[in-house]
Amino acid sequence: MRLSKTELILLGVAVLLAAGGVIAPQWLVFLLTMALAKAMVVQGVVMQMRAGLVTFGQGLFFCVGGYAVGMSGHFLNITDLALLLLIGVGAAVLLAMLLGLLMTRYREIFFAMLSLAFSMILYGVLVKSSALGSTDGFNVKAWTLFGWTPASGQAPLALFIIIVACSGLLAVLLHRYSRSSAGMMCEAIRENEVRVEYLGQSPRWVLYMNYVAAAAVSALGGGFMALSAGHIDPEMAYWITSGEFVFIALLGGTAHVAAPFIAAILFAVVRTYAIELVPHSWQMILGFTLLAIIVFLPKGLWSLFTGQARRAKA
Amino acid sequence: MMSLFAVLIDGTIYASWLFLVAAGLTVIYGVMRILNMAHGSFYAIGAYAAASLVGWYFNNGVGPVWAGYLLMLGCALVAGLIVGLIIERGLLRFMYGRDEVLMVIITYALLLILEDTMKMIWGVNPYFAYQPYAEMGRSALAGLKVSNYDLMLVGISLVLGLGLWLWLERTHQGKVLRAVIHDREVAMAMGVNVRRMFTLVFVLGTMLGTLAGALTAPAISVVPGMGVEVIVLAFAVVVIGGMGSIEGAAVGALLVGLSRAAAVHYAPEFELFVIYGVMALVLAVRPQGLFGRVLARKI
Amino acid sequence: MNCILETQGLCKEFGAVTAAKDVNVRIHKGEVVGVIGSNGAGKTTFINMVTGYLKPSRGEILFNGQSIIGRTPRAITRAGMARSFQVAQLFPQLSVLDNLLIAVSAAQSPFPSLLAPMRNASRIAQADAILAEFDISRWRDTQVTAVPQGVRKLIDIAMALIGDPQMLLLDEPTSGVSAEEKTALMDTVMRVVAQHQVTVLFVEHDMDVVRRYVSRILAFYSGEVLADGAPEAVLANARVQEFVTGGPNAHKRAAQ
Q: Which residues of chain A fall below pLDDT 50?
């Protein structure tokens, strides 16, 4: 596997981040872990945005990933992190393969609404499931890895290093995907679906693969969220949670695979301070930021950087 | 037999409430093609305005009871007028012509802003204005105790629905509006002031939203986040009926109302599942909704 | 047995409007056929039916002797029938090169690769070659939105041609292009098409353009084929002159 310059930089940043985690204070490690987990879900949203689809229900797969991890620990006594995450991703993939058959028939506002409906169905089921703690959810058991049980103080840092490693690998894979025939075909579908059909390609097949892949990536984020927070609740599937993912996706834009990671970290840091300083204005800040992005930066934060690069070249 | 009757009564009451909430949403979408996520916030604003004023009015015994009802409706309509005008004139008119999905995101931003604005004005503690609800008492319907206030809701929602339908179908202004719905450019070319129509419709939709909130306020405790819950229900109703159709919203509301009432009576654990289940089912079979139209793309 | 496309009793109604009425056409391999007819005569409907975008109300369409009724546009494209569009159907936010690479990639496999890069040497070579054939190489790295109308029409045709179809349907290749540019554009198109040895059917309004390139003309009027044959014969046909070209009789009528 030969790595391009961008891919080497992505992996290099991951190594630096992991090393930084060793000296960083615990609260920062925790904050970054959560931010990276959310960033994975956002990657799923961005993958679909590149194909021209806005989902207001990516929380569905975030929640499925989280609950599959939590329930496997709770009911099957599985504690191995790798196995748990695999189960989470597998569950989401199966669900996405089923829902994808339907979802790929819809575009634009109908896609947004149907994705919202499906995630709200899951929310509705979980809220009424007393065996799963209803609205309160339940605690996720401590994890092990290949027989190794982290000591009580070690677990957060170990999980941080694991999620950074996974994020680095994911970034490389998604970077390749975005330049592959399938990834470019997504952009082509966004631009002109009829033409794609008339080139002999099935838009539905491309969108289906993209939908399932996005679900897998988002479920991985949900699994990590469950393991790092140690708790899951139906809120994960609520539409406001999905709205937050759309927000972060728009903040970062679709131009580069690193953007969702940066945007998610920025989001987490700003929120931590904003909630402390102005507890009842946080949503208002989000709202005005979103309007500003739409009016001034239609491609998200990343257009700040590429715009500068272009000016520097000229 | 008895429980079936109860389901029918409960379902109808719930459906008329749903229709009140969804009517403004579908009118705005029908004319302006804006699926307004902030509609739930309009509902909440109406509820807060009514609960704070009506609560104050009754608690201090300011005046006669009947005037309290007028106050409740009046403050909702005024709040809707102000909020609708500010948003349409101050923000939305700069966004017309953009992509439908982008408009959803813009109104989502609006929702976030309005949620915190409400917290600033009314704080985070709940408001109660139960008096209008309690004052009306209950009647017995075939052995079933039903609140008169709820029956009044059914009546209001019938009148409102009929009024909207007549306005759209039978008046000159309604004809002009339908021309705008059908083809914006042609309507403009024929001298219709589309911008004024948009302002009118948006303010009307907002007022329908605040009115729904005000009418609901006496039956609930008014708390932060209530609009966020309501908006997805309204989406479900509007999507089922076909976005932009008044008769669709009525049928959608009945469908959702009755299925929820049935679920509450027979299988309470499926209460929420049923609502979104019906929405997903209708979308899967008839994505344009029961009364919606499909537009084909020309190449 | 060199008939490549045949329609039998093709009909299409949109509600009360008849867009195609008993259309019987046989196109032979290697022919260059021009389709003429006024607006609403059913030319584009014919192309849309033949390429699977519209389902005919009745009738049969045979491509290489096989029925293609009910097949999707992509299946028909893969079977070897490609088309271009009245308004160029491109991917506007992408570069001209990427537009063509997507076309190459789509032609190569119905299952696009998830990780191998789309830009590889062989695909780029193929795209560059066709750009050179159409003489538009200098637009290679420009975003489509910045490309002039005439060039867009050529890219549209290049994307249809890059999959090596047996038959090419061109829907008004010169529409939206200024009168001065028309001839040069059609010269380029017909030169490249001839090199690729592909059967061509094109819709065109300008009779001078049609006369210059075709070996046969189909004249449509209100969904029916009014005349079918050699250009001189069809253009001399009285009914064609009356309803389609508005020839000498039209002047007389206007004078009366």
A: 307-314
CA B202 to mean position of chain CA atoms: 13
Which residues make beta-bridge pairs with B140? B145
Render C189-252 in DSSP notation, one character per residue. HHHHHHHTT-EEEEE-S-HHHHHHH-SEEEEEETTEEEEEE-HHHHHH-HHHIIIII--HHHHH
What chain B holds in terms of domains, given with CATH numbers, is 2-285 (1.10.3470)
Interface test with chain C among A174, A193, A194, A195, by most C beta carbons within 10 Å: A195
Arithmetic mean of pLDDT over chain C: 84
Give ∠ CA A90-A94-A95 in degrees, rounded to 5.
Answer: 115
On whether the CB atoms of residues A267 and A30 are closer than 8 A, the answer is no
| Domain range list for chain A | 5-237
Please name the chains neighbouring C, where neighbouring means 3+ C-beta pairs under 8 angstroms: A, B
**Contact criterion met (CB below 8 Å) for C10 and C24:** yes
- 3-state secondary structure at position B294: coil
Nearest Cα residue in chain C from A179: C117
Q: What pLDDT is stored for residue B299 in this prediction?
A: 53
How close is the nearest chain C Cα to the Cα of B77, in Å?
Answer: 45
Confidence of residue C99 (pLDDT cuts 50, 70, 90): very high
**ipTM score here?**
0.88
CA distance C192 to B64: 88
**What are A100-118's pLDDT values in tens digits?**
998 898 888 888 888 988 8
Query: Given an 8 Å threshold on Cβ–Cβ distance, is A202 in contact with C106?
Result: no
Checking if the pLDDT of C255 tops 60, the result is no
Q: In what order do the strands lie in the sheet with C216-221?
A: C81-83, C167-171, C199-203, C32-36, C216-221, C224-229
Q: Which two tokens stand for residue B80?
A: 């809707």
Contact status, residue A59 vs residue A236, Cβ threshold 8 Å = yes
pLDDT score at A184 = 92
Non-local CB neighbours of C58 within 8 Å, separated by 6+ positions: C9, C10, C11
For the cut 50, the answer to whether the pLDDT of residue B62 exceeds it is yes
